[in-house]
Amino acid sequence: MLFEDNDFDINMAFFIPDVNSSRKVNILTPIEGFLRGNMFEDEYEPYKNLTYFKLKPKDEKEQMLYQIMALSFAVNDLNLYLDLHPDDKQVLDLFKKYALEKSELEKNYVKKYGPLEVTQVNGNKFNWVNNPWPWEKMGGSMYV
Amino acid sequence: MFKYIKHTNYPINISKKDLKMAKYLITQFGGANGELGAAMRYFSQKFSMPDDYGKALLNDIATEELGHCEMIATMVHQLTKNATIKEMEEAGLGSMYAEHKKGIYPTNASGVPFTVSYYAVTGDPLADIMEDMAAEQKARATYESLINLTDDEDVIKVLLFLRQREVVHYNRFKELFLYYKNKGY
Predict the structure, then answer these.
(1) What would the pLDDT profile of B135-153 be if each residue is shown by its tens digit?
(2) How many domains does the structure of chain A reveal?
(3) Is B46 part of any domain?
(4) Cβ neighbourhood burial of B167 (10 Å; 0-12, 13-18, 19+)
(5) Which 104-143 residues of chain B touch chain A by CB within 8 A?
(6) Number of domains chain B contains
(7) So what's the ipTM on this one?
(8) Stretch 112-131 of chain A: residues touching chain B, C-beta under 8 Å
(9) What is the DSSP letter of A103?
């Protein structure tokens, strides 16, 4: 055939996302997935010889935040997969597990360091406004 | 409805000033293959998806892309933060400074402002999702060019993360495309 397109072979044409397919997905741990930017081991495609970098949190606050970010990442990536495979029990169970772990960890973080969402405001002052915002790094002036 | 979460999707801590890189990087905010275009593309297209799978996937990827807009803008902000006017001029950012000072304005790497003509909404799920697959590939290719343009580890690790998200989104869109093709939409 002149234009053979492997994307449209017969096996793929009958692949229906909403049933429990025989395809087994290998899911990485939240931190491993987070570092790669991909929770699915078999779908991970590194660029050239560059894989990923270890994160080096500078203090306890940053370490806790990175753990929350990793869980938040895992929840988001599994969310996208579940959008197409809502009946995949294995992935749904992991999704629930990580969502719960995230909210537990967030409770501790918020108590110590302030809100990540506006409804988590605590104390006598509206501490949502407190620095830093996510785009900020301390030190230096933005005004020249 | 959206709610803001006070952290980026992946940590961004850039300590080295690099104005040239900032000038290139801004294209992933306001360029043809950038995150703003991606977010608005899926956000707009979701309304004409024919079933729950498409509605959910386009909605949820659009939401993630909004977070990626913030990440690119954050990187540009941190790369330019401590620059003097003279340094900005020397790096080719003089005209940007004239209009925006240190403000983050969505343009491509040549300074052309963002336009919605970077994306389409056909109302046809197959045509729209095929565009989405292409958009993810173009964004992946752009991230690779950007990685080639720097040797700052603080920048590269964020770009590798964002590049990998394009790979994942492409895979999800492709699954949806094949499913819709099979359904005969």
Answers:
(1) 999 999 999 999 999 999 9
(2) 1
(3) yes
(4) buried
(5) none
(6) 1
(7) 0.96
(8) 115-118, 128
(9) H
